[in-house]
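note to self — DONT lose this again. spent like an hour looking for the file last time. sequence + predicted structure for the chain T wanted, 66 res
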Amino acid sequence: MSRLKRALTRAKYAAIFAAVGAGIGGLFGRNTASSGAALGALLGATLGEKRSGLGAVSERLPTGAE
């Protein structure tokens, strides 16, 4: 997987999780929304990195149609 595609995958997950974290945190208050967004973005970026790494591993595995 190219570096650009990996970075875009990380950014996509970070943005989605930041929005979800802010939404959940917003139910409790403004400061909590900010903290929820930050934690969500961190979690999303981490998950995006792991997920893109799994895609790279699965591309190297044989398909069994040999």
